[in-house]
Queue: 4 jobs
Job 1
Amino acid sequence: MRAPTEDLAAAAVPHMTPDEFRRHGSEVVEWIARYMERVEELPVLSRVAPGEVRAQLPPHPPEEGEPFDAVLADLDRIVVPGLTHWQSPGFFAYFPSNGSGPAILGELLSAGLGVQGMLWSTSPACTELETHVMDWLVEALGLPREFRSDGPGGGVIQDTASSAVLCAILAARERTSGGATNARGGDGTLTVYCSTQTHSSVEKGVAVAGIGVDNLREVEVDAAFAMRPAALAEAIAADRAAGKRPSCVVATVGSTSSNAIDPVAAIAEICAREGVWLHVDAAMSGTAALCPELRFIHAGVERADSYCFNPHKWMLTTFDCSAFWVRDRRPLLAALSILPEYLRNAASASGAVIDYRDWHIQLGRRFRALKLWMVLRWYGLAGLRAMVRSHVELAHRFAGWVERDADWETAAPVPLNLVCFRHRAGDEVNQRAMDAVNASGEAYLTHTRLDGKLTLRLCVGQARTEAHHVERVWELLRAAAAG
Ligand code: PLP
């Protein structure tokens, strides 16, 4: 029992006042602006040893609140050295996760509003702005009009492409099983297809969806690392003969290892014939379709059941923001809708609104559309196209230098902004060259393995990468390989 004199409801809680927020908020915005100015001077790949960051943090949480300035000081002292600088113009690793001023401000506004948009009624603008910018993107990328929200289809912002592919697999699962898997669980007969080059998120999605990774078929690829449609057709036929139920094919536009583009049109033909769901994963490369001359990457997407690309990879929309569309939302909603009493409301019952809680795994959702809206309005499509064209041009320039040097070779076609290349002397030299570039602090590259050989990857996707950054990596690579 509490002491009768104690009024807990009236206890002083040290909230940040609006005035304090104004002051510290200005400091934080200034800190970020300064970070943008100096990020190029910081070593791109963090140099801390495992445990070094934690060793500098107090073992126990503070009992009393601390001044905000002390936290900002520790940000510089402890956190920044432990960062790999994804926003550095020398970041050429993996696929990018680029960002921009308008996106950061959109995130700040989203946090400031603190809206949770699980239902239309929990913040109508959160839903309607999202629906609207997703329809804008259909137009901007030349995607099929069936993906627009004014028909049976529609788009939704997911956190990541991994969540998007999981949703596609679940929708396919419900369509193939006529709703039986939601009701009674799987019977081990559903199968899913991707290529040997497909991102690991598909394997994870198949496992999470209860389909079982033994029922995932990794179809072989051609010399350009793209899925062979004939091999897909054979795999489906073999499964049908064995009593399996082919459910979903995942085609990739711009694979992670080599930027391979699966022949979506031929794959779509097979999917249509077989009644199999086709999901297209264009995680990074989809952004290129903003440029009409690069829209060839989407040939065949007009027949896909679902499609995803990540504005958080290459479209300046600070992580996280993954855009996912379906041609027909009914199987998706059949897989994911659930309506407890406490969520019932008149707007949902009217059928006139979208409740995005039914379009992804989790219930609650952030106001991500705000940053996407800000990016689209700040840059305009023309501004975004200019960035894409510049990156593709820089990647092609780099590929040209590699190809003209007798000691080096490209290891895969370069359709967009990723160059896969290697020194002809073999794995040891390539490893040495990559390690030297990464140790220099000026740039950061990662690798893959193609045709059994260690292959370096240079992906140009940073907002502020210019020609001289790419020239410098080439210089560092050649010096390291020679040394
Ligand atoms: N698909 C492809 C082709 C990717 O390259 C990646 C990540 O790089 C993913 C999916 C997974 O992306 P996310 O981190 O958004 O789940």
Job 2
Amino acid sequence: MTDLSVATSLAASTLDIDAIRNEFPILGQTVHGKPLVYLDNGASAQKPFAVLDAMDRYYREMHSNVHRGAHTLGDRATVAFEGARETVRAFLNAADTRQIIWTRGTTEAINVIANGLAEKLNPGDEILVSQMEHHANIVPWQMLAERTGAKLMPVQVTPAGELDLPSFDSLLGERTRIMALTHVSNVLGTINPVQDLIARARSQGAITVIDGAQAVPHFQPDVQALDCDFYVFSSHKLFGPTGIGVLYGREELLEAMPPFMGGGEMIERVSFERTTWNTLPYKFEAGTPPIAEAIGLGAAIDYLQSLDRPAIEAAEQALLNRCNELVETVPGMEVIGTAASKVPVMSFKIAGLHPSDIGTLLDQQGIAIRTGHHCAMPLMDFFSVPGTARASFAFYNTLAEVDQLFQALRKIQRLLT
Ligand code: PMP
């Protein structure tokens, strides 16, 4: 063991992982007769009782529509729903709940922003993205570029899977109107130095959009310290329910942006001659919102905040270190994404094996990973692979599960190559 892995293992050992795992009922089951080893957290994370119970309680005790103000249940639902917004505000350290907009997830949030910025773009303007973006942070900008005549400028990545900073510097310029980058890569696990890149982009007058989908499950961003214009994430990767996500935005920009969808809730006054918009954040929240889901996300954040965050981060790094130590025990295994600063995500290939076969055979052992292009086809092209196998960890995973993964990989490698 290296000094670093000894240190992280010691810090991690202050966490009671068994007690934590007991909070996640789904983890206790067997799959194909084997105890479930869930290593697909990057795709979607599991939910603790705190989330399940909060949503159940909402439907049992207070379900009603929000913001109608006509009766007690409606008031209770509104208080819980807006309380969740305040929880998200505090989690991101945003200045005001007006800046916290509910969306269906990261994908919808980026579409809301891209749509809202259309009027700011002219032909020849440039939108900086990177080669390691999820399709959710590429396609909406491509659609916007097509609408406005702007151009998409992809920043290169290095063979280790870090952003190529000389490439960033060469592409950032006075034509850059928008910089849209992922905080953490869903394929590589790379943590990008976004605070520095935001400062550089802002000094050129660019609007900055950060995709935090893979960052928030591992660490807490501070949107004021980052000084970004927009920060977005999905609840379901943060141990909360599906169907809801968050768009944080700088207030002046949100005020200036047109709404994404029209309908109830987002209006101040409607007449056939003229309709005016509601105040923030409701201008962007047409229709009945996902009330139970907002409450569930609030409960997920409260649950996370009740844990020892530094110990969790250390435990996650210990998982990653153990993976790195065991790679050489599987002949022909190669990790894609070896950045110096990473969350516990391991994309890999094994010579002679197709990623989807690896996934299927691991599933037979009760081990769930993801295989394929991970909605990052340009990155697959860069690494010249059709896809990868990816094990992505959460704080409830154990070192024993890492060992089980590698034991299974060694077996598959022996049998099939
Ligand atoms: N960005 C990144 C980095 C992601 O990992 C994902 C989900 N895999 C998304 C965006 C899209 O998130 P959602 O499907 O929840 O909208």
Job 3
Amino acid sequence: MTSTAPRYSRITGTGSYLPPNRLTNAALAEQLARDGVETSDQWIVERTGIKARHFAAPDVVCSDLALAAARRALEAADVDAANIDLIIVATSTPDMVFPSTACLLQQKLGVHGCAAFDVQAVCSGFVYALTVADSMIRTGAASKALVVGSEVFSRILDFKDRTTCVLFGDGAGAVVLEASDTPGILSSELHADGRHVDILCVPGTVSGGQILGDPLLKMDGPAVFKLAVGVLEDVARSVLDKAGRTTEDVDWLIPHQANIRIMQGTAKRMKLPMDKLIVTVDEHGNTSAASVPLALDESVRSGKVKRGDTVLLEGVGGGFTWGAVLLDL
Ligand code: UT7
């Protein structure tokens, strides 16, 4: 690559990790019933498409899941951790207030010196992190980035609130993004609208040595649903336009895995056949920033998504935030 040649970024490896404790809807419903919280497998499947989720053991933290996913992505890319020059972790459930989970991951990988920071954009976090890494690679600020989405959402769930606690799960996904003289990432777009802070939030914080406010997740599900359906179609069309592509060019749509009805609604509005939609929400639940890289890695490893395929990634979530990345794998 000469210094004047355009510089792009390309995913060269993917990895993911789910904690071993898989909890079916029936098992979760049984646990909740002990506390007088009523739900059912039928309600959860019909309204969300979720059949099971994974929960991390109490002593496992966000950076542990990130480490397992990162190692798999590095192995797939055949890249030594020592050669990574940028680590970005997208998470809303970090190990600590600070340092960042990215710094803790760097330490667990046994490397040091490269830039490492977290991105906090809730369920849009991975799409945000990937866009930042792509921008840094294009400008020459980095050449080999490790981009991770990792969450332990089970830690911030209110198990007395059936409208939220049945929806989320834990897990991590990662990609290695490297400089390339061919794209790679074709286009991306990020958005936020802080007017909708209240519809999806964890309002508490740490102050004066105490937790101030409610430290558990609050969501107005129907309000999030309505906003998500609208913005996901708009941002998908926008990244396609930017790249000079059309919906016919999309081999796979990998949206944030929150609710099968939102995902199918987006595919339908875009006139994409349902067999181009990657679905992992049934087995993972909503893993927030981890959902897109988890779904990407599973579909790559299963042989469904192949090198050279055009893939549309989409995120949407608290903030309110949303965004999309269009790429050739
Ligand atoms: O990751 C960030 C993005 N997040 C999302 O995209 C989430 C978006 N929202 C959603 O996915 C859906 O709005 C939910 C799955 C959260 C809720 O589905 P809904 O079809 O919008 O249901 P609803 O909130 O309108 O509730 C319908 C009924 C209510 O009962 P009534 O008032 O009709 O008697 C709820 O109390 O379902 C009841 N309900 C439940 N019943 C059994 C709510 N949660 C449960 C539950 N089990 N777990």
Job 4
Amino acid sequence: MPELPEVETTRLGLMPLVNQTVAKVVIRNASLRWPIPADLPSLLSGRTLKSLTRRAKYILAHFDDGVLLLHLGMSGRICLLAEDEPPQKHDHFDVRFTNGQVLRLRDPRRFGAVLWAGKDPQQHMLLSALGPEPLDDAFNGQYLHQQLRSRSVAIKIAIMDSHLVVGVGNIYASESLFRAGIHPQKSAKALTRAQCERLVAEIKSTLKDALAAGGSSLRDFFGTDGNPGYFQQQYFVYGRANDKGGEPCRVCSAPIKMIRQGQRSTFYCENCLSQKTIRSSK
Ligand code: ZN
């Protein structure tokens, strides 16, 4: 599913729409994760897009008198197209602008969301309980250590909890734990302050690498066709489990292990953890 770097790259790709005025809103299929509000066409027509921001994996499109929340769900993709581009099967929602461009949501599995959040989006039920952004200073070793004290779940589960920190999806959880030399099944409350410092640094570093890859591939990623793309990145452990015909550990060449945690696949290198071969990836 699209993770934070893909969402941020999508936001950047939509920036040409800022200061443009909505001509028309087209809802072809309102049945997303929540129904697209039926009054959205009348709410948005004639309104000017003031800015585009991001909170967790939500894109916030700020208009004169309220904010449109966009979420890509499991399989969604937002394209910026010319208005005469014919819609395809899973193109459920368009915002057409007076300059001839259209923001189009394509979402085969329909777990995405298009919602009106009014003037104070941070109070919206989907945003109000979210933890800090991973790249903000508020997400630091002291904060993580304090938050983990009361959590007996595995650390991989804990860092994927959006109440603790947002935007650490499955790929980045496995990668940053590997880079920090921490076993994904370790009890969250057993992490030392030093391990928390290290893990925070690796989460930030892993996400920054992905964001940089996204920036460099913006044009391809934001193209008009194809499936939701992932940035071309070489992961240390994610997707490399050997029993799946994958590749060995990039550090020690041992087979990568894959386990299930919370219905998601976790990848790690037992050998690197036992040998403590991971020092610093940077
Ligand atoms: Zn290894």
